[in-house]
Design a protein that fits this description.
mainly alpha; four-stranded mixed β-sheet; 16 helices; elongated
Length: 362
């Protein structure tokens, strides 16, 4: 048998050796703490085994006790390696499973959950965030109609985004929801596009109409532009990511989600998670697309303009946009989408809508 295979059944905790050394010297743990210039809890943690000996601590112990730093590091390493390897592996697997399933790093970075080292504590943070008792309870609602099946690489990342939207809705004050009032108000809401800085007025308008409105930054691996669903408080929710920043994308996505709500698609049994150009075209999606296009640029007027020679003129585009009370970027975006104009044309008319969002974007 090689020497490498010879190891004690159980290594001695370095804290026990330290306690014996203190007894021989007649020192208390507080005495050593004073010598090290550390709080008493630092020494008691090492003695109890709750705290690991770091290289810095090993050097301090060596200086205080006349030993070598290597002695304490070797004792620490031997003891930790002798601990149950299965338990350590299980701890890593649990953390790995959480990171694989949920956007843990993003959730911590954005302050959605607190950073935790232990797998059990990290899991508790995730359960608290989702307000469930077990990880098995975290899933898309059984009757949820996810129309954008290609939109998310990982549906649990989508669920984390949705849960955060729900949390941000909690502090909003809403009026009563009435679909007829919404339909009547939509032209005025979309007319806000004329002045990009008016984006801040959308939430107030929708809130008065009984609709939650949230701007929540795009979450990687969701490829999400917008969503509409019913909040647990029974009010519709419209949430946007402004993923691309393009003004035309933003307003089309808003109109698309407004259409889902106004057309009665959003109820207790359905929810829509939409990625422009990346979702499966169900009937509800086709209806929402058609309605959004009509709201943003009435089809008859748009068709007449799109076949005119004037569309190559920035002044003509601005004039047409003024006639339908829309920002010129919406007209440019539609012409580009329909391949009437190249995507490189009139880019100066397509400002980044995120410039005007500021603190509105969560």
């Amino acid at each position: 048998m090689s020497h490498a295979a010879l190891r004690p059944a159980r290594a001695t905790p370095p804290g026990r050796i330290l306690a014996q050394e203190l007894d021989e010297r007649g020192w208390s743990q507080s005495d050593l703490a004073d010598v090290l210039g550390r709080p008493p809890s630092a020494v008691s943690g090492i003695v109890s085994g709750a705290s690991r000996i770091t290289p810095e601590t090993a050097r301090s112990l060596a200086a205080a006790l006349g030993t070598s730093a290597e002695l304490w590091m070797n004792l620490e390493t031997a003891y930790r390696l002798s601990e149950d390897p299965q338990a350590a592996e299980d701890e890593v697997r649990r953390r790995s499973a959480l990171y694989d399933r949920f956007p843990i790093r993003e959730m911590i970075r954005r302050g959605w959950i607190a950073a935790r080292t232990g797998a059990a504590d990290l899991e508790s943070e995730v359960l608290r965030f989702f307000q469930v008792q077990t990880l098995d309870e975290i899933s898309l609602p059984a009757l949820c109609a996810r129309r954008s099946t290609k939109a998310a690489d990982n549906p649990d990342w989508l669920l984390a985004w949705r849960r955060r939207v729900e949390m941000l809705c909690a502090g909003q004050t809403l009026g009563p929801y009435d679909v007829d009032a919404l339909s009547a108000a939509i032209p005025g809401i979309l007319a806000l596009s004329v002045q990009p800085e008016s984006v801040g007025g959308i939430g107030e308008r929708l809130g008065e109409l009984g609709i939650h409105f949230v701007l929540l930054r795009h979450l990687p691996r969701t490829r999400l532009d917008g969503a509409s669903f019913l909040h647990p408080d029974q009010h519709p929710v419209i949430a946007l990511t402004a993923r691309f920043g393009r003004l035309d994308h933003f307003w089309f996505t808003l109109a698309h989600e407004l259409a889902h709500v106004a057309l009665g698609h959003v109820n207790a049994n359905t929810a829509f998670y939409d990625a422009m150009g990346d979702f499966d075209e169900g009937e509800a999606e086709k209806q929402a697309d058609k309605q959004a296009s009509e709201w943003l640029a009435p089809e008859r007027s748009y068709r007449q303009f799109s076949v005119s020679a004037a569309l190559s003129s920035p002044a003509a585009i601005r004039s047409f946009a003024d006639s339908i009370e829309r920002h010129p970027g919406i007209v440019v975006g539609r012409l580009q989408h329909d391949q009437i104009l190249p995507y490189t044309a009139f880019r100066s008319m397509l400002p980044d809508i995120r410039t005007y969002m500021g603190p509105l974007m969560q």
